[in-house]
Amino acid sequence: MDLPKEFISRTREFLGEEDLNKLVEVLDTTSPTSIRTNPFKWNNTVDEEPVSWCQNAYYLAERKPFTFDPLFHAGAYYVQEAASMFLDRVIKEYVKGAVIALDLCAAPGGKSTLIRSALPEGSLLFANEYVKNRSQILAENIIKWGNSDIIVTNNSPADYSQFNNLFEFILTDVPCSGEGMFRKDEMAISEWSIDNVLNCQQRQREILKDIWSTLKEGGILVYSTCTYNREENEDNVKWISEELGAKVISVPISEDWKITGSLTDEELPVYRFLPHKTKGEGLFMAVLKKSCKDESEENGHSYLDEKRDKKNKKNNKGNSKTFIVPQNVKEWLKENDYFTFGSNETTIEAFPKRHYEIYDRVKDKLRIIHKGIEIASIKGKDLIPSHSLAMSTSINMEMFCTIELDYRSSIAYLRKEAIAVDSSYPKGYVLFTYRGLPLGFAKNIGNRTNNLYPQEWRIRSSYPPEEDPSII
């Protein structure tokens, strides 16, 4: 691996010659592969080495062709780098009750799905991504995970600054110089420079300043990067503490995990994952508790306590056309009393009642690209069940004719091919499953089925393996 000379010399300064050589050596090896299963969909254990600091997480002996695993598309697990799963340990240590949380830089969705899995019941998660096309990937992965209490947005950090004191927990996995991704991404090596490191450091501080007022006093902010240098890591953590007002707090860990502490200040409780010591990629994480009110909070008030402004009052008068959601459609969801149902001219949606007031107050101020559950699309008098419903952990499968597919048929369905079914099945909408988990809907019209799998999500490869490569 042809690493930049300046990266080598800078890294030598704080790692030392011996550790530097070990790091460079391991960067020429294959990255370990790890997954995290979905506790809302898959309760079975996996016969692989567990990731010690995260529940339901495992290292795989070898990388599998996940694209051709129907369980991957059903949201039974997520392929995620092991070091980043340390976030699970942080949440279990410091979040003990229902919270409103924000994953600020969330795409492609690994940490968002982890956060939602780790948060106590009754929590609400905002998953945000600034880059538009990446926000669509984020929404896809959130939908597959299946939880209704998530709002996916496509906004800049500054757009969130209007919401004082909204969040009790924030993850800022900030854009960085990407040194920890060198063995996975050759582009990260070619784009590296000291100037980029310093530019990233300043951009990270701007992001933190934009978002700081949204964190409640006593709330938790997790700061993380996938880079090694001190400027983007320890220096920024000290800056948050001193300039914004926070206490850097520790997380209990085991020596067996071989996590490295601060390389610049032994008293600073931060967590470095170095791939020559810990099984995973390069990662830095720090946990901060907001302890001081900043000026905007002292002169302001909680966004949740404010009255609706005139714009919101005007927008909440109702649509020009209304659609009454039929009771039988509501029954497509288990425990449907938990939800508020709404519709427009094209879709029917459901959102948790307990969080609807929050959604109602942010909906005109953020670009929301997904929320809750899209239950159905409206086509004339026909209500077509949506793929979001099929993926939801709240789907009432008893309301649909379910048809279990074998591996080959499952792959054909995921490639959006027509699936033939036995003539004994009733006409209408049917739910295809694989190993008991929903894959999606089709419309049985007798002699064939119309495949309703999302066109943009389909498997494009024409060469699936002969046997099921499933790992769980």
Helix content: 25-40%
Q: Give the total of beta strands.
A: 21
Compute the average pLDDT: 92
- The structural class is alpha+beta
Low-confidence stretches: 294-302, 305-321
What is the tally of helical segments? Answer: 16
Oligomer: single chain
* Shape call: globular
End-to-end CA span: 34 Å
What composes the largest sheet? 9 strands, mixed
Rg is 24 Å
Name the beta content range.
15-25%
Description:
With 472 residues, this protein is of the alpha+beta class. Helix 4 runs parallel beside helix 5. The protein contains 16 helices and 21 strands. The longest helix has 19 residues. The strands form four sheets. Strands 5, 6, 7, 8, 9, 10, 11, 12 and 15 form a nine-stranded mixed beta sheet that branches. The protein has a four-stranded antiparallel beta sheet with strand order 2-3-1-4, with helices on one face.
SSE layout and pairing:
Blueprint: H1 5-15, H2 17-26, E1 33-37, E2 49-50, E3 57-60, H3 70-73, E4 77-79, H4 86-94, E5 100-103, H5 110-118, E6 124-128, H6 132-145, E7 150-153, H7 157-160, E8 167-173, H8 186-190, H9 194-212, E9 215-225, H10 234-245, E10 246-249, E11 270-273, E12 283-290, H11 295-298, H12 310-315, H13 327-330, E13 339-343, E14 347-352, H14 356-362, E15 368-371, E16 373-379, E17 382-385, H15 387-391, E18 401-404, H16 407-414, E19 428-434, E20 437-444, E21 449-451
Helix pairs in contact: 1-2, 4-5, 9-10
Task: Give a quick set of tags describing it.
23% strand, 28% helix, alpha+beta, 472 residues
